[in-house]
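We now fix the convention by which a protein and its fold are recorded. The integers have meaning only within a learned vocabulary of local backbone shapes. A record is reproduced here so that you can trace the correspondence yourselves:
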Amino acid sequence: MKNWNLCSFNTIIFAILFFLLLANVFSVLMGDKSFIEYINVLTIPLFLIFSILKYKPDNVSFIFFLLFAFLNDISGIIFQGLHTFYATNIFFIAACTQLLIIVLQNIDLNRVRKSIKAYLLMMFLISIFFLSLIYETIEVVLLNQITVILFMVKSLVLIVLGLLSFGVYLSVQNKKSIWFLTGVVCLGFSAIFDYFNIYFLNEWRFFMGHKLLYVTGIYFAFKYDISNNSMTTIRNADQDSFQNNIWA
């Protein structure tokens, strides 16, 4: 029965994701980008309502991630012009920072193999090298220094988050680590599409890719948190059953 309830709940969450993705595609094809903003604002509340009905969220970092992600969504509606860019990037950075805290809570660096540490360090140095090259390019193109700083901070947070998530996957290699890594990768590529849409070529394909990957990343983050909560619920139920058998 528990497995059936969990399967049904996952089906509902996936149905919500599928509806949001279709709504995004429809709004892009209709040429109404403002409609996408309103649709994406519903993403966090819809996922959160169904997760609260099934599980009680107890991860403070994940709750703050949801808060900042929601503020990122709603910033596109509240603010206008350059203030929209500032607000969305700041809240996106804050949301990814909360995911980074979750990763640090779930990784024991002492148990990570030296080969994995060396590989992650090498990838980090390579990423920093390419990021420095990009910085030299956009510093000339972008006259606003705040925009450049936000770009660099956002990129650095995503790089660290992605590498640590990959390190957790290499060390653990379970479903939860795959879901979390998939969510982080989707958010990272969402940011890349957003970069192309803002800095290089404002095109509907980049805009749609950014929005679709963002919603998918939020979905897999929920999958990870739901899995954690379901395991906690099962463990608590087993402990209660064991205690009842002792006192029976």
User: Anything to note?
Assistant: The first helix runs from residue 2 to 30. The chain is about 90% helix and 0% strand.
